[in-house]
Amino acid sequence: MNITAFIGSSRPYSNSEKLTDYVLEGVAHQKLFIKDLNIQPIDDLRHSAQGFQFVDDDYDQIIHALMTSDIVLFATPIYWYSMSGIMKNMVDRLSHAIRDERFPQLKEKLLTTQAIVLAVGGDDPKIKGLPMIQQFHYIFNFLNMPFSSYILGEANKPGEIANDEQAVAQAALLNKQLKTMTSRI
Description:
single chain, five-stranded parallel β-sheet, FMN, FMN_Rdtase-like_dom, oxidoreductase activity
């Protein structure tokens, strides 16, 4: 079973990355740090005569991860009550990717790729982060991806996620589930 975590924080060793580490401790996985990739914003040409055009950036790494993963985690800080801008940029480009003739099997693959969202914020995220979770739900629904779970954690300063006992407990439970799933293969 292949697992990829898309890390959407602009800060190294962020709380959202730490929450991801709790979830994936002892589980084989890869991390893609979106901030380290050159991903151009979408140029929405789906209604033009030429359609979307090839973009020479690192987005193919995102597609490759989606095509080779059974489970993907979207780990993001909660910025202004939504996902980070760099993660939103990555998600926006999916409009292009699902129409890219180089990846005709992408939409079919997403039907069996489980999505998990991990998000950390500082302003009552367990309530104020829910609209963002709904947004992810709509995104995954549009892509026909199974949305298996999410965790909302509360933290501001680096490392504070360790103080959110509920999020850490949820991460331990999800970790146990992932270990069980990966041991069956």
